[in-house]
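Practice problem: predict the structure.
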Amino acid sequence: MAALVSSQLGEIQNFMTNQNAIIELRNVTKRFLLPQGEVTVLENISFTANEGEFITLVGPSGAGKSTLLRLLSGLMHPSAGEIYYQGKSQSGMNPECAMVFQNFGLLPWLTVSQNVELGLEPRLKDPQKRREVVNRYIAKVGLEGYEEAYPRELSGGMKQRVGLARALAVEPSLLLMDEPFSSLDVLTSINLRNELLDIWSDRDNVVNTMIMVTHNIEEAIELSDRIIVLSNRPGKIVGDIKIDLPRPRRKRDKGFIEYVDRVFSLLA
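Answer:
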């Protein structure tokens, strides 16, 4: 009886501690069966993303960062451990998540509007309402006037804006991004990072929780509330760093440089 009461109290305390959690991983491990045998990509990953946070995952190549995003979205399932979304065990794809990919992921035979509308079709049956949503998010990412353009007619930055608009149009509670700026030139990347922060900080938007993968330490510090650092394969959490700097953040400031050194030392 005492053990049962203790267990119930533990569950209540855990709920109270994580009542603002949008997604939580508990001891998550992911293995793949390859021709050469079983490979562990992620091992014993535990962390919580709270509503309204901007979290960045950094780590060496092969640390399992992209795999971790796919686990969060429900595209993959853990080999061990549990993932909870808003307090409930996650099974299958999570319709409250949307993802922005490194390589844009646009369908070349569809226009900008049609690419943005793609994720809305199973969610919103009324074509007129879909068009209204599509136009709203095309405007939000600064692509007004390009609604009927095809991906081949767009620059890299414009393609990524289409990918972002497509993800935002389904109005997810959690936005996942896999190196969204890595294939862009420096100036385009700077502009898109600033626009992403504007979208994240606008509380009129449904999505205000973001988890991003990047190899760029300065980018992670510029954008994030927290940085989760993964080790080499199998990926384990070796650091969970709260970035306590006011925004906008300047790369030459002493505090910024200290965070760069701290993250780099964990990666090294």
